[in-house]
Amino acid sequence: MQDPGGELALAPVVTYGGDEPGLAATKPARGKKINPKSAHVKRYVDHLHDQQQRAVRAVGAKKVYSYVYSFDGFSADLAARQAAQLRAMPDAVAVTEDRKVTTQTSSTSAFLGLDKPGGLWDQLAGPEDAGEDLVIGVIDSGVWPDSQSFANPDVSGKAYAPFTDFHGTCDLATDGSWDEGDCNGKIVAARHFDEAWGGDAGIKSQMPWEFLSARDYNGHGTHTSSTSGGDHGVAATGPTSIFGAITGMAPRARIASYKALWSAKDGSTASGADSDVVAAIDQAVADGVDVINFSVSGTTTDLLDPSEVSFLAAAEAGIFVSASAGNSGPATTVAHPSHG
Fold it and tell me: Could you tell me which residue ranges the Peptidase S8/S53 domain spans (predicted)?
């Protein structure tokens, strides 16, 4: 997998306040989102790309990802000598080695008190309407679009109206695992990120069982997507049928799936690289999600970790970031310190 390369000194799009001569501010006003198609944003993005390309050329490296919306930086294949050269540049904030992260999980509406009398669901006209007009960006192992938790219309027959201010897209799969109908209005974005593994060709050679799309082989991403935003009153199936009907935390929310974790063949875990995760965060911010869900491991100490910096920028732009704290104790092992 790639070394993720460097974080540079300029602010990303969602936090840029207009300090560069001739470049207007792109930070969205409170309660607003960025528009990646606007002229101001495009000009500033070009400026960030130019800065990054100069740094890449200076050390003779090849850029893999360019991050601009929630993080000013790039990932690249770097030899130790090149990493040292990059660290010495005056505009370089940090150079971080790529690391693997793995799935983590917890749940339930009862634990959060959502279903209590007078609870949040009651305040939002019941679970049949809670989450309406919100988009949850789930960065995980993908989603299984055929699940009834993502049906449109939902179980009650209520359809999801088209969005007009969301910029997400759904990528079709070269292996036939994702087609146009899989983004059905409940699922509104479906992207996959695998450059750290060598792209689709690398995944195919290392994990031939995996889908070359946002379709979920592992199941963890489907679980977290349905837990966060699955339709209301869906009959559980298989071994989980003993639970009866199941409902997501925000059942009328839409799901934007960003697959950055790739599964073991036996489905025991899924893992991904920081460089792919930051690319997924950057895309989710550009698309205009309202929430990012990240039930995945992460650093316990490094406040300059690229994912943490990206999450902080997303939060500053008004996106609610929900990241897991870990599956073990004590308190000193809590992951994602940017949420402390």
Answer: 131-337
Q: 264-320 pLDDT, tens per residue?
A: 999 999 999 999 999 999 999 999 999 999 988 765 566 678 888 999 999 999 999
Nearest to 214, CA basis, from 272, 151, 247, 171: 171
For residue 108, give the 3-state DSSP assignment: coil
CB 151 within 8 A of CB 157: no
Single-letter residue type at 244: G
Domains assigned to the chain: 6-98 (no CATH), 101-339 (3.40.50.200)
Instruction: Give the separation between CA 184 and CA 163, rounded to whole angstroms.
Output: 12
Per-residue exposure over 177-190, b if at least 16 CB sit within 10 Å of its own CB, e if not: bbeeebbbebbbbb
Name the pLDDT band for 106 (thresholds 50, 70, 90). Answer: very low
Using the structure block, give the residue that is written with the tokens 């997924």: 280
Q: How many CB atoms lie within 10 A of CB 84?
A: 12
Query: pTM to 2 decimals?
Result: 0.89
Other CB atoms closer than 10 Å to residue 141's CB: what's the count?
33
Single-letter amino acid code for the residue at 155 = V
A 10 A CB-CB count for 115 gives: 15
Instruction: Count CA atoms within 13 Å of residue 283 on its CB side.
Output: 24
Which region holds residue 187: left if phi is over 0, alpha if psi is between -120 and 50, else beta? beta
